[in-house]
Structure formats: C-alpha cells, structure tokens
Amino acid sequence: MKLKTLLMGAIASAAFAPAAFAERGSDGNVSIIYWQAPSILNPFLSGGTKDVESASLVIEPLARYNQDGELVPWLVDEVPTVANGGVNQELTQITWNITPGILWSDGTPFTSADVKFTYDYCTHPDGGCAQVTKFEGVESVETPDDLTVIVNFAQPTPFPYGPFVGGESPILQAAQFADCLGARAPECTEQNFNPIGTGPFVVDEFKPNDVITMSANPNFRDPSKPAFATLTFKGGGDATAAGRAVMETGEFDYAWNLQLAPDVIAQMEAGGKGTPVAGFGPLVERIKLNNTNADPSLPEGERSTAMHPHPFLRDPAVYNAMSLAIDRPLLVEIGYGQAGRVTCNWVPAPAAVNSDTFTCDTQDIEAAKAMLEEAGYVDTNGDGIRETPDGQEMRILYQTSTNAVRQDFQALIKQWWSEIGIDAELRNVNASVFFGGDPGSPDTFQKFYADVQMYANTFNGTDPQSYLGNMLCDKAPRPETQWQGENIARFCMEEYDALHATLTTTAGAEERAAIARQLNDMAVGNGAMIPLVHRGRLSAHANTLGGVILNVWDSELWNVADWYRLEGS
Q: Which CATH class is domain 280-460?
C-alpha cells in the first residue's frame, strides 16, 4: 500500500468493522509499542504526546473528537450546543449531562464532583498544569447534582469546548487525587503512575520509561468491551525497532509515530506482518527559539525565564536569516517523503486556518548572509563565526529528542547555519526524558535549557483556540509552575494576547479562522519558532488487529475499546 494513498484521507483500517464481542477479554493480550516511553500517566503534568495517549487508555474526557474531527459524546448523553439548550444564548455557560451509571474502575460512581475537582486541580494557584489553556476564560464550575456539570465563562465564549474535551483534558477521580492539589501534584507518585479511570483498561503495573501492564476494566460501561483481557504498553527503543516489531516480526500489534524515511517504511511493509496507517492533521516539526537566555552561568531558577532575554535570537534579522538558510524541500524528501509537506506555519490544519502569508520553500544562503551583515552581525576575527554588535559570538545549543530523522535534520541545519556564520552545538536527549515533564530534570523540552530545540506537537480537535493559547505570555514554564506550561519559546507579545482574547469571544467559523491565521502569523513572524515540516501522522498495526481507526484529531488510542483480534489470526 502506497503512503500517497494513505495520506489522501483514507483510513487503512476502516475496512475492519468492529466485531460483536462475545465477552469482555475474549481476545487475550494486545501489545502496543511507543518508542517514546511514557514517564507519567497524568497528562496534566506532562505536555508529551506519549504521556497523553498512554493515559487515555485509563482516564477519559466528557467528549472527544472522532477520526473526522467531529465532536462526539463520551461520558455524557450528548454534546451541548445552543440548539439543544446545553449552551445558553449568551454563550457564557455550557451544561454537561453525565450519562447515568458510569463507574470508576474501583466501582465507585463517576459524578460531577470529579469533573469540578479536575478543574480545581488544573487551575490551582500554587500548582503547574500542562493543560491549563483548556480552562482559559472559565469563571467557575458548578455541580447542582451528581450528573450535571455547569461551566461558567467570564465572557461570551462561542467555542466552549476547551474544558473536559479531548485526550488532553480528561477527568481525574477526586477521591484519589484529593491530597495532590497545587505544589503537591508532582509529588503524588502513586496517583500519577496508577490513576483510577473510566476507560477500558486499568493499570496493573507502571514502570516509568519502560513498560505498562494493564488489564480490562471490570467496571467499563460496555460489558462486552474491551475485547482484550490484558494490554502491554512497551516504551523505549527507536522508531525503526518499533516499526519492525509490528510490520516485520509481528511481535507487537500497534506501533506509534513511525518517524522514519519513506523507503524504510516500504521495506518494513514488505515484511507482510503489518500495515502502515497515516493521515494529515495539524502536526508540525518546528524549531522553537528560546526568547530567554539559557546560559548555564545564570543562577538556577533564572535560566530560561523572562528575567533574562536572549542576547540575539529575538532579533528579526537573526531568526529570519536562520529560517532562510534552511532547505525545507530537502528535509521533507529525506525525512518524510509523501508523509511530509513544506510548511511556513505553526498551525497548517485544518485548511481554513492555514495562512498563506509566508513563503519558505526556497533556501537562500546568500540572502541570509546579507541580512545578518546589514544588521551588524559580522565575523571580525575570521573564524567563520559572526559576532553580535556588542561582540558576543553567535554560538547556540541546538537540542532535540533522540531519533534518526531528527539527528539527520540537525546535521543538515547545523551545516546551513554554519554557512551563514552561526555555530550550533548539537545535543539530543532520550525522548522519554525530553518529553517527560519532570520538574527536577534539566533535560525536558519545557525547561528548555538550550537556545533552540526541535520537536513536533499537535492538538485535539479542529478548533485551535486552546492550542493558540499556548503562546500567551502567562503560559511560559517557570519555577513557580513547576516548569509546566506550553509557551515553550517564552514568547510574549501584548498584541498577541489581546487578539487571542478576541478569538475567545468571536463567533462564526470564517471570522474565527481569520483570527487564527493572524495569531499564527504573529507567532511565526515575531520569532517564536521556525516551522519546518507539516508531518503526516504515521503508525502501523498488525494485520491480525481489527477495529483500528487512525485519529489525527485526538489520541491515536481513542477507540482502543473497539479493537479486536481478527478471526482466524
């Protein structure tokens, strides 16, 4: 099967209609491999996709997005709207009606109190929450009875589906996490590693950065699901080993995020054991520019904070020259083939929000050199490295996670930047650590102890309001938030914050899309990042595994309760 066909929007596994399960657990074990190993099962304490998705097997939101990007009810009777009376006419209140009878895996009732507690947990003034933008604009959460949740917004909110929606905003059990509010949140190891949930599986044992063993939730709301009695979630290794384990050896049933060259994928598929599945969502490989100074000579607690601006990466001449020096079509060719596209945008999908302001598909080394020269960045001693106007050499630390494609990108980009007089020291960090969110580690992407760093991420759903909110000034990770927060670049622009506030109160799809494009342009055009590649999400499943439907708008494991072993396998 050709990747081009996969990426035209077809879902390779859609042909496998979910079977009518005879009984829960009738299909034995299912094995999943994520080469970026989960380090925690609480997505409120990690922005890493591998942590969000592994947690989604256990803890769930009120509603989520299906494979077409449509909002669907999950733990509620229906998605509230103005038309059905669930959203008031003033657009300041949304009411969720929880489906009766849902139990936590420990057998206790799932109630509105758990939903309100989750809001209190993430917005606690003494804590840090990786998903706090989901609750932007929320004034209060009310629980008039056990099955009713009322979310009140401080002002009219045409898109009220940030809180408790999608894999990034699931519900925590109030009883389990009651003593984990505020600064105590990262200290609650038992709760963060073994959350009680409403999902199809329960955690039996969690070994951080290694393996998770799970079993079918005995209190799952559908008595015939999941089909699998146990689940093994292996983490670590690399994308090559993960792909081979599904498509060549058949050792695993599902491999996530096969960030590999297209010829490698083709060779693996020829092994005959598995099938790649792919689709384009909003996933973008980008280089984040640290707007603050990560110099290790600065005191701990001051590095990579607003106390110390970066000495030269905030200059438009510098970040525009760095972008101009990059050959994006070559990166796409060697890294992703038909599973990648050149992009100049932070948010390239859905199509309505994809801006056409910038062009970046042509490398121009000479123009980049001239841009730096004109701005006063010159090489005065002839060593090939430019100095800033105040005499500081333009040396940067360029970090990313350990991955073959990313290391290839690093090597090329280092060479291109050296040609324009910027010296880059390369560093790669184990992905499980890099995306782990441990506030005590110096190596996380949130702490950003480097000048530039490269990675990709995406968002749940098709409306980018919460995702764009990640670039608000107050969302920068810092010591007082336990280094949680999604404004990784420490970008801060009053005009951006003001325009995002306008987005939160704007109705109408076209008007919202227009503002989203403007916000994208502000962030990219003012040095928050250098977008590189719009990546297709590419994973693989065993030919014996049915029910898999790739979802680029939510967790890839969104419908794991519907997975089953094909007859005769």
A: alpha beta
Can you tell me the distance from the alpha carbon of 379 to that of 393, in angstroms, rounded to the nearest whole number?
A: 9
Q: In sequence order, which ranges of 36-134 are alpha helices (DSSP H)?
A: 49-55, 112-122
The kind and range of the H/E element at 93 are strand 93-97
If one counts every other C-beta atom within 10 angstroms of the C-beta of residue 114, the result is 25
Answer whether 73's CB lies under 8 Å from 79's CB.
Answer: yes
CB atoms within 10 A of CB 263: 9
Residue 190 is given by DSSP the state H
Q: Match 């401080």 to its residue by tokens.
A: 154
Look at strands 423-429 and 395-401 and give their pairing: parallel
Q: What is the pLDDT of residues 222-269, one digit of tens each?
A: 999 999 999 999 999 999 999 999 999 999 999 999 988 888 999 999
Where do we find the tokens 């600065």? 298
Query: What's this model's pTM, rounded to 2 decimal places?
Result: 0.84
Longest dimension (CA), the chain: 77
Q: Where are the beta strands (DSSP E) in 294-422?
A: 340-342, 395-401
Task: Give 411's DSSP letter.
Answer: H
**Domain assignments of the chain as residue spans, ordered by start:** 280-460
400 φ, ψ (degrees, to nearest 5) = -160, 180
**Residue (of 464, 465, 458) closest to 52 by Cα position:** 458
For residues 229 and 224, give the distance between their C-alpha atoms in angstroms, rounded to a whole number: 11
Mapped onto helix, strand or coil, the DSSP state of residue 374 is helix
CA 530 to chain centroid = 17
Phi, psi angles (nearest 5°) of residue 458 = -145, -170
Residue 534 phi, psi dihedral angles, 5° rounding: -80, 110
**To 10 degrees, the CA torsion angle through 472, 195, 62, 564?**
120
Helix (H) / strand (E) element for 410: namely helix 404-419
Residue 283 main-chain phi, psi, to 5 deg: -70, 125
Structure tokens of 259? 């960030």
Backbone angles phi, psi at 95, to 5 degrees: -115, 120
- Residue closest to 110 by CA, chosen among 182, 170, 191, 24: 170
CB 396 within 8 A of CB 288: no
Please give the full DSSP string across 286-313, using - where no structure is assigned.
Answer: EEEE-SB---TTSPTTTTTSTTSB-SST
What was the pLDDT predicted at 553? 95
What number of other Cβ atoms are within 10 A of residue 379's Cβ?
15
| pLDDT per position as a tens digit, 104-141 | 999 999 999 999 999 999 999 998 899 999 999 999 99
